[in-house]
User: What shape does this take?
Amino acid sequence: MQKIDPSVCDKLRDEYSNLFEEALLNEICDVSEYATITKGNLLIDIGDELKFIPLILKGTIKISRKENDKELALYYLEQGDTCAISFANCLHTSKSVFKGLVEKDAEMLLLPVDRIEGWLVKYESWRHYIIDSYHFRLLEMVDSIDALAFLKMKERLLKYLRNIAKSSKDSMIEITHQEISEDLNTSRVVITRLIQELHDEGDIFSTRNKIRVL
DNA sequence: ACATTAAGTGATT
DNA sequence: AATCACTTAATGT
Assistant: This one.
């Protein structure tokens, strides 16, 4: 494995220097690999072997579950995130239970599995980072379950749109009804009708391929 | 101008 | 809320 470019190391420091101690940053620079994945490509699919843990430097990755042809979006990974779920996964089963699709061109560092366990005892900051990450993902998962169990599709849709607008820091979302329906595991027709209602009620403003959250 | 893709609609379950 | 079957509108070549 070749050493990563110093400029990538700088990016890592920009994002993590207040989180990780110097020695850990150095180790990460020494042993990890740099990867870029463009929009539309898979970072990981269900059943894939997990050989690394991604540390996201840039971009967005949609994490979802899949059963047969059906799918359900769970949450998004962004700058500063890692998939801590993949962490425990790595140590034991090593097969991913999630699908990770790159939604916005992403840059990341791939941390080799065999190192991360040692860091857990060696670095307090790493320990905290992993535990926090776990906690955060769990909360997001609970949120998804709640929405699924207690909300009507219209409420789920609005929540979904607001969530995207919030995390992308842009009230203008570029997406088709078809894509939304896939994320929420429903049909396009249903989304089209609900989008109309939300539009009429003034929650959103929608045009072809675009939705503005108000 | 034509083909493709996205979105809208009525009727039915 | 899902599905079918069809229409209309927007967009790319």
Q: What stands out?
A: The longest strand of chain A covers residues 52-67. Chain A has two domains: 6-149, 152-213.
